[in-house]
Fold each of these.
Amino acid sequence: MNLDLLADNLTNPAFLFFALGLLSVQLKSDLTIPQNSSKFISLYLLFSIGFKGGQELAHSEFSMEIVWGILFGLFIAGVIPIFAFYMLRRKLGVENSGAIAAAYGSVSAVTFVTAVSYLEILEVHFSGYMVAVMAFMEAPAIIVGVLLVRLFSPLPSQSVGMKDTIKHALTNGSVILILGSLVIGSLASDAQAEGIKPFTTDIFKGFLAIFLLDMGISSGKKIKDFLTTGWTTTSFAILMPLFNGLWVSWLSQYISTEPGDRFMFAILAASASYIAVPAAMKIAVPKANPGIFLPMALAITFPLNITIGLPLYYWAVTTF
């Protein structure tokens, strides 16, 4: 692995703002990002990346690579929850294992956005359809996780109906926004896209830095309680994303020859959802403890991916 890439990532302002959020919690500072502002910024990031992905998609010729790319993403989102569930079921029980499996099979839009910024620094191109892949990967993992809970739970009748679960997964706000922005971006002409470029592109990195500051504050508040749950969840939150990122880095060579696309597949496989999945699990599997799976994704896996993960996965796709 190129250590210069790791050093560049550790000195990236976006990551440093994340570290500042962690530090502020340790210092017991009253630094906070208002909840409404945080929600607006997260919506903005999804809108921006979706719109720009749609523009990329509009300039790309339709090919079977796009179809295979989306199918590969769906395959990843379906397979990861299954082996994650079986790894954890004996230690953590059916409900918690199902929720964790769904989180690690689903994706983190913020990790994806950070990866986009990372590729921009390296001046490496990736295809616009990867935004669609990200959006399509979020719901299947939630559905698989809930199905596993229903299959192995001794009291399946207490679970929410599968129809409601699927509806919630597909109508989740982040899925609607990213897919909607993708479609709108693909329909907009170059002149129309140029008109809102100052909003979709120029201020993107600034909003990303503030959002990561907020993520750092949230992670810092949760990590202390999480560490008391033992080494099973901690080691899983560290090793699982690295394993997923590396095997997908290797397998993606049969889907695409573009390093940027292969890197995005790896980061999607390595990331874990801490927005859509907790919301879905609260409805579908109320017995799952968010105090376990939320800190795993947000306080351990997320910072791991944006520090060590990004340069590691890029090294892997350029090596394999």
Note: The chain has 16 helices and no strands.
Amino acid sequence: MILVTGATGHVGRPLVDLLLEAGAGVRALTRNPELARLPEGVEVARTDELPMKGIESVFFVLAAFPDGPAEVIRRAREHGVRRIVALSSYSARDDDPKNSIAVRHRDLERQIEESGLEWTALQPAGGLAVTALEWSRPIRTTGVVRGPFARAHSAPVHEQDIAELAARALLTDELLGAKPMFSGPESITYADRARLIGEAIGKPVRFEEISHDETRREMAEVGVPPAAVEARLRMFAALVDRPHEISPVEPYLGRPARGFAEWAADHIADFT
């Protein structure tokens, strides 16, 4: 049986479906089991209970355990779990101690590597397409989205591609001890993201660039830690007018990555 943490999240939810389709037993962790709405046949448990009995493999996300994987690893060892597959980030390859995002993911990878379990660390690069869901309300109400770097490039990854790669790491031995890095198939700017969403929903969407100070204020209002804000500002400033390097997913999935236009079409309901 496979334990999926963050089972109702953007990656966890499609991963649950893929594992069920493959015939695997799934125990899904969520903070609110009564609201999970997971498919029939899935065992649903509370995240804070962390039931490990009978589990062979674990899919781990920091969003579900923001303090890191230590407790999950400890319980996994106690119950004879064989494998852990973690959603990390390509930022883990950045050794800058000021990059708080990189520091967290490097620590995550270090802990799973030292766990004594079989492991895989997935490193999506180029940003996650689902971050555009932060724009859902302004797109519905005004058709204008705001951010600091209209011309910053990224190669956003569709969450379904991450879920498919996680399923492969959990169900086969192909990625043992690996840190596959993969991006979306194209480098696009944040202004392009807005335009592509507009094309998908049939309504013009415009990106309005704002200052760093405005960005700091707005992120603080939604609870983003100051260190994370500064890390994001530094990272995105370096991407202005610089096309993002593409890291193909074909070697792992045997097909091209899904592009942002496809992602926008898959999420029309979120923006209308």
Note: The chain has a mean pLDDT of 94.
Amino acid sequence: MVDWHTRGEAGSGVIRLSEPHVNELLSANFWWLRGNDRDLVIDAGLGVVALREAIPAMFERDPMVLLTHAHLDHVGGAAEFTDRAAHPAEAELLTAGVPASLYGAELFDKLGIDATGEPVPELMIDVLPDPDYDPASYRIPPMTLHRLLDDGDHVDLGGRTLTVLHLPGHTPGSIALLEQRTGTLYSGDIIYEGALIDDLPNSDVAAYRRSMEFLADLDVSVVHPGHGRSFDRTRLRQLAEAYLRRDVQTRKS
């Protein structure tokens, strides 16, 4: 059995988890936060390996899973949780079943990604989690949400409170979570180091620009993104402003 997840301390009571054997496009971070009263897991990875089997301690306090948006690399393990939350705009897709495949060409087709001129991976993982695993069996089951969270809502874990920020653009219901006491922002796929995706069928560039304008002025200490490394407020502003410049240049060309 392959050790599928990596774990690392990301601050007091915060654990970063990732899946190193997943293709870069889908290799996402998810975050396990411990409060005094209960735990919160922000996003749930690709779901190739069952979280309850791989990380049983995560479930000891019946955590809530809060999904930043409804893409397979962030919701794959969400069905394992008994308390699931997301923005209302993502609920319909989660209920219908999030498009998913471990085969590159099939996945790109399901997501509406135009890969013209770009190499498409045959398989989105570089090793099987166990010798008997069949990639064709991978799917994300339809799931209902137990809580709908919108802009300004609070999630209180006891000694740790997070505020929901609705920042659409990547998807209609993309959210980030801000822990104001520590200045920590969990940004999902709204912003991270790398090429930001705003051309999926349900993306909205105008909304994304408004979200970036908000983030450029947001006072935070650290950003824990959905992909890649964490960064500080200076880098947050640089990334947001780079997106805003890029979009202006694209529209002029």
Note: The two ends are 50 Å apart (CA to CA).
Amino acid sequence: MKDVQSEKDERRLPLKKVGIKNIEWPLKVLDKTKGHQYTVAKISLSVDLRHDIRGTHMSRFVEVLNNLKMLSPAALVEILAEIKDKLRAEKSYLNICFPYFLWKESPVSRLSSPLKIQAVIEAESSMMSTITMGVQVPVHTLCPCSKEISEKGAHNQRAIVEIYVRSKKMIWFEDLAEIAERSASSPIYALLKRPDEKFVTEMAYNNAKFVEDVTRDVALELEKDKRIEWYKVQVTSFESIHNHDAFACVEKGMTEN
């Protein structure tokens, strides 16, 4: 059959990325405590395209995914290399996003239940391979200003802590999630009995934090970890008494204006 994708293109315009986006894929991933767990990921794969080639062979991206047995740093490097080889490209790119479950005990009743976080991996291969991993973790924040000016209570809400890192050695999703929870007013739990609710409510009230506080506290924790070469932190608070969200962001290497 005629290979239309490989036809010569006369427009002489290279493309930075061509590929497939948001294919849903069953995936086995490493788990720090249980060895592994199963999930369903959304995966995007792409390569650069030379100026003289009309198109790429999209089916080859899926063929490469068929060889993925378990997600690991070594598997990511292998996928990127195989994509470049199959598609005769100089650069390859990968983005994976999937739900990841942490089994957490409620603080008083000690009942265990799964908490869903979002795991994110971005990887790129050209002359060298780079892997950025991240988590999006739900937490609880309580407003210090509201607490200060109110006679009773303070407005509080869920927030999302996003942490993205590049590191010298492997870092577990669980490690990043723990930093996010430790830096918030309180962790979030799937299952809470009344004594647990009392504990969490009082913990948050005694640990009031703005999104700015949480963002800085997470960054300081990441700075202590010598494995981490780069990080980005963003915290978004889904405000309970405003019709907008509040957020703060920091990235390693920032300089003051």
Note: Helices lie at 59-65, 73-87, 144-149, 173-183, 194-205, 211-224.
